[in-house]
Amino acid sequence: MTRALTFWTIRIVVAATPARAREAVEQNKLVQQLLKTDYVSKELGWTPHFYECLIAFALSFLCLLLFSRLCSALWRSFYTPTDPHADMFSIVVLLGLPPMFGWNAQHYDFPTILLYTLCLYFMRRQNWRLYFPAFILACFSKETAVLLPLVFALVFVSHHRDDRLIYWGVLASQLLLALLIRGWVSFLYRANPGHPLEFHLFDHNLRVLTRPYSVETFLTWSLIAAAVLAHRTSKPWLLRVAAGMLVPMLVLSVFFGWLDELRAYYEAYVPAMLLASQSFIRLFGWHVETRAPTNASTVGRIWAPIGA
Q1: Nearest to 73 by CA among 117, 33, 30
Q2: What's the distance, CA 255 to chain centroid?
Q3: Side-chain-side CA neighbours of residue 24 (13 Å)
Q4: Ramachandran assignment for 159, one of left (phi > 0), alpha (psi -120 to 50 degrees), beta (any other)
Q5: Bridge partners, 80 (sequence order)
Q6: Cα angle value 93/285/267 (rounded, 5°)
Q7: What angle do CA 241, 246, 251 make, to 5 degrees?
Q8: What are phi and psi of 79, to 5 degrees?
Q9: Which residues 6+ apart lie within 8 Å of 230 measured at CB?
């Protein structure tokens, strides 16, 4: 367990809950009836630690609500017009999540996708005062936060000649924080069973790569890919880079993950959905324009808050 943020949050909330309040919840008649059902007791496995599971469920629900509003804000920061497109996009993004649950959602999934997407939002706004706290939390949540410095390097360091040293400093700060946080968390849980990396090319992924696929599956993924890649030169560079992080994730999954575990690619989900949604809207003849990115070329501006 090195994806510790959600686990720590649940433990803190449980510890901060008065014993009487916790007992009142667990002894509630409705709760007792729920615990007698096969779905809650056996399928969900909530019986031994009902209150902890309830907190985890509430945290996931809250993260989904915030994630939906964040997706609306992302649309508004990248595209115009904003209404009703932004709110429609926030709903579509939520509807696209269930197909990714095939390998069972983990308690850290929704906090992770929320924090990673929040970092992309602050990166778009070039608000580094809020980006770094979100980035630190994302590093505690899951190791895939290390993709964010790569996105930053490709978007800012390689495309900004002015004040390049400042951008190199921001990049170095992210890499150092990620190294320290992930190293410290790994050290804390060094005695846990399992290995940091597990090789799955021959025991699982080779079968995934060589098994036959239906025409419907091929056409579905082809349509999604076409929507993401269509008119790509006119789409925001940050979204194209962020969605492109799917490539290193897929390469690593071939060897060290389960290639068909869709929830492992959450980090590329929102950028890909933003790119695909723009294509689908244009397909129906609706007008969508890309907003110009915030200009943060000066030393003073790069640390300025949103709206400054």
Answers
A1: 117
A2: 22
A3: 5
A4: alpha
A5: 289
A6: 25
A7: 125
A8: -130, 160
A9: 279
CA dihedral 125, 69, 72, 123 (to 10 degrees): 20
Inter-residue contact 122 to 128 (CB < 8 Å) = yes
Dihedral (CA of 265, 266, 270, 271) sign: negative
pTM exceeding the 0.85 threshold for the entire prediction? yes
- Whose CA is closest to 154, among 30, 38, 73, 248? 248
pLDDT in tens, the chain (308 residues): 678 999 999 999 999 999 999 989 988 888 888 888 888 887 778 877 889 999 999 999 999 999 999 999 999 999 988 888 899 999 999 999 988 886 677 889 999 999 999 999 999 999 999 999 999 999 999 999 999 999 999 998 877 666 778 889 999 999 999 999 999 999 998 888 877 778 888 888 999 989 888 898 899 999 999 999 998 888 999 999 999 999 999 999 999 988 888 889 999 999 999 999 999 888 887 888 888 776 544 333 444 433 33
Please list, residue by residue across 60-74, b when 16 or more beta carbons sit within 10 angstroms of its beta carbon and e when fewer do.
beebeebbbebbbbb
Bridge partners of 272?
none
Query: What's the CA gap between 217 and 29, in Å, rounded?
Result: 46
d(CA 197, CA 255): 9
User: Given its phi and psi angles, is residue 42 left (phi above 0), alpha (psi -120 to 50 degrees) or beta?
Assistant: alpha
Cβ neighbour number for residue 251 with a 10 Å cutoff:
11
